[in-house]
Design brief:
By secondary structure, this protein is mostly helical. Helix content is about 85%, strand content about 0%. The protein contains seven helices and no strands. Helix 3 packs across helix 4. The chain is rod-shaped and about 110 Å long. It starts with a helix and ends with a helix.
Length: about 190
């Protein structure tokens, strides 16, 4: 066993000097073990191969700056860390996906509500346009701007009784008109 450690130290020294043969020896000696460790944890051949390949690629890229006494410990620790990072990334991705799906669902609901509200606004505008002008003004001031009858009366120089008449006329018409709109709307939406 000690002889193997000495051989690995020699491989590492040679790898630090940029020796491709030393890298190939390390790769051949550890590839299967590294792959097996990754596969046992991720249960995906493609991901395990990718993690192993990345590990050996980094080993080659850092060959001249790497100071490792035990290449086996270094490689096994590196693959375990790579697997942990992969799993963490997957967990974060899943959380992001769940959040995104919830957000999209809320956004779709919000969009649908906005469309329904816009349709209702258009229906109210269309219904109001069928009323006489004074009745429209009374309805808008009372129902859309929350003015009391007395204020509308003073503003339009009409008696409160006349303002009440216009409001009653508008409300009666709008209830009938919007009832038909809502019935038609729900048939097409649902």
């Amino acid at each position: 066993m000690k002889a193997q450690k000495d051989i690995e130290k020699t491989w590492m020294i040679d790898l630090n000097d940029g020796d491709e043969e030393a890298f190939i020896k390390i790769y051949k000696f550890y590839w299967q073990k590294v792959f097996r460790i990754a596969y046992q944890r991720v249960r995906s051949r493609e991901i395990a191969e990718e993690l192993a390949q990345d590990l050996f690629l980094k080993l080659w890229e850092k060959r001249d700056t790497l100071k490792v006494d035990d290449v086996g410990k270094y490689i096994f620790c590196s693959i375990k860390n790579a697997v942990i990072d992969h799993i963490r990334t997957g967990i974060r991705f899943n959380k992001y996906t769940e959040h995104y799906q919830t957000f999209v669902h809320k956004m779709v609901e919000s969009t649908n509500e906005a469309v329904k509200f816009t349709d209702l606004e258009e229906a109210i505008t269309t219904g109001l346009s069928q009323l006489p002008e004074k009745t429209q003004v009374v309805f808008k001031l009372n129902r859309l701007e929350n003015w009391p009858l007395e204020r509308i009366s003073n503003h339009l120089n009409l008696s409160e009784k006349t303002v009440g008449y216009h409001l009653t006329k508008a409300l009666k018409f709008m209830r009938t008109y919007l009832k038909e709109f809502i019935f038609t709307f729900f048939i097409f939406v649902w």
